[in-house]
Amino acid sequence: MSTTIPPAERLLDLVIALVNTPHRMTKAQIQRSVAGYDDAPSVEAFERMFERDKDALRELGIPIETVTDAAHGDDVGYRVDLDAYALPPIELTPAQHGVLSLAARFWQDHSLARDASRALTKLSAVTSGPGSEESVAALAPRARAGGDAFLPLLDAIQHAQAVTFCYRAASTGEERLRTVEPWRLVASRGGWYLVGRDRDRAEARAFRLTRMTSAPTAIGPSRAFDVPAELDARALIDTQHGGAERIAVLAVTPERAGALRARAVTATGESGADEQHLAAIATATGRDLLRVPYRAATRMAEELSGYGDAALVLAPTELRSAVLQRLNAAARLSALDGGTPMEASDG
Amino acid sequence: MAERAPDRLVRLLGIVAFLNRHESVPVAELATTFGVPARQILEDIDTLWVSGTPGYQHSDLIDFDADAHDRGVVRLTESRGLTRPLRLGTREGVALIAALRALRDLLGSTLPAEQAAVVDSTLEASPPRWATRRAPSTSTSPPTGAPTC
Predict the structure, then answer these.
(1) Is residue B22 domain-shared with residue B62, that is, in the same domain?
(2) Could you give the ipTM of this predicted complex?
(3) Residues B72 and B103 occupy one common structural domain
């Protein structure tokens, strides 16, 4: 009884045979001459084996080309052109190799772990020497990948294709369908965020992956949008999901906005010239000066715009403009409702 | 868990490509580079040594310097055309790049400048040149009717 050739060795022999064939090899030639195929018990068994191996190689980035030959009619031949699937000439330093090893381990049990580890193996072939992880190992992150949402989002980012998913808003707890042009996945403070353009809101948003309540589904064509060149994803996440605590200085109409008043804090430290100036503004307009702490500017702006002109933002400037933008947008919308359509759709 | 055949194949091809660029490499260094035990490298070399083009006579096979091998050093003398390092597949590239970005984002400002520079240079050296360019996706089927929450 002949010893069976392990699949890895059969695949290797197939690649070597198809790389070195002067023109092409037919299935019959492969079955007859390539080690590992000759012990297939039947033609059908060989066919299954060969198809499976072709798929495996394609998945590894080594597509087997089909070569038809006019002289042989329907007779199909195969070959592999490794040069066409070779890495461009690069050489990675040991330190870079170390970083890549660390990155590959990032996925752990995730379905991308195998892809990452194979990528690393491929790139190991072009390092100048074994990598040292020491330069970054102490800081090895072990962020949990973002569950089932991760892979579809990566694919969609790769293809610049829009996605839809159900999302539970942090501010209201309300679940809604969102349509987003995905730009980038960002790990921040132990969680993953999708940063992209929310089509319905027509602005850049950050979505926490753990708040997605359905798996993202790609919709529409590929290459549907461009990612902005200047994108500060971290700032966006901090603004919308909370970074360091900041204080909103508000001038509030007496006896209004009780929820804000309940959260207000007293001024700490010495009151500088700015403070006195702000207090003077509030007094001059007959309003109360409130200091309300917040973390996520977007959520705070949403809340404040709900009070309309009962709550004016004196500082900080970013929060002030965020509220004004919302109020202006609302004003334009109500103008549209009552007036003539600004953009007539051609019918 | 037994290693899957495709994963092993990628390493076998990687080892040959690596050895093509390096004259003589100790087994231990290959083991570190490819992140497997030295025993596995020796098994891989044994496999490569008996692989080749149909016919499988001595001149058809991948060959190594036997004297060097006895000293625990690997020197490739015949590669049978497997000289080129393989490009990354789309998913492979994406997986690695996303992890690199995450590394940089997570570590961010806590990284000493020197280490941050290494991560940045790795990211810059990377995509999209590493990965296979793939034809525009035609696979994703458009959902019929928008899902509701």
Answers:
(1) yes
(2) 0.79
(3) no
